Amino acid sequence: MKLNTESLKELISKSIQVLKAQQSFLNVTGRLVYLPQEGYALVIGDLHGDLETLQAILRDTHFKETAAKNSSAYVVFLGDYIDRGPRQVEVIATVLNLLVNLPNQVVLLRGNHEGPDDLPVYPHDFPEVLATRYGQDSEALYALFKELFNYLYTAVVVERKALILHGGIPTNAQGLADIAYAHEKHPEESYLTEIIWNDPSTLNGVIRARSRGVGKKFGADIASQFLDAIGVQTLIRGHEQYPEGYYFNNSRVLTLFSCKLPLYRNSHGAYLYIPLNEQFDSLTLKRYIHQV
Q1: Boundaries of domain holding 114
Q2: What CATH number is associated with residue 90?
Q3: How many angstroms separate the CA atoms of 230 and 69, rounded?
Q4: Considering only 47-56, 139-148, 272-281, which range has the smallest mean pLDDT?
Q5: Domains in the chain: how many in total?
Q6: Strand order in 246-250's β-sheet?
């Protein structure tokens, strides 16, 4: 894979065009993607520049070969492609190459590390990584990446089954329209902020996420109320690391974290490979969790 300045610019520009075009051939409302209830979905959590784990997942699932033969095979990335890890450019380039080569089957969600400018994240070393590698071209590349991030999707729905996003339930949302158009209502409404920043809580209700400084913590009661309101069983999300690479926060919320960088001290990364015609709940989902 060539990753010089011009090839990377071309890849980002092509990816933006694909994301725009997906509105016409995927089932998309705003920034919300509806997946069909047939075929398979590979769901990959936070990567943070962990190229080795990403390559292992794609190798173990034979995803590229399967998707080339089966148009009903999808991959959903939960966001946080960049920052912290040693191979950030390679990770996001690998993901974008998948998007360009399999435009009908690759869904890229926005994580808090790809958030809007008014929601800074720490650490955010991606600009420095670009500067070290691309010198005076890095600012133009970073501007292109930020444009790309603004086209990433907010969430995925598999009707009657699952809501898939990066962080958590937007606690004041009334339905899927608030998720689909969260990017347009930002920052007047907190929907986008909460979708990419919120975390589950062991307590009921909504509390401030003091450890992060942004977003909120939502209890199992809030999750159940919203999931019932939109008619799905399960929330699948990333945003938090756990030693095994996954964790059932409660009976209706599953966290996936795919990155295995030493700084996280987790023994595994995890991903889902699920048949979309299955009913999702904590019992059925567990059999489709794989560790790397």
Answers
A1: 5-291
A2: 3.60.21.10
A3: 33
A4: 272-281
A5: 1
A6: 27-29, 32-35, 155-158, 162-164, 234-237, 253-256, 246-250
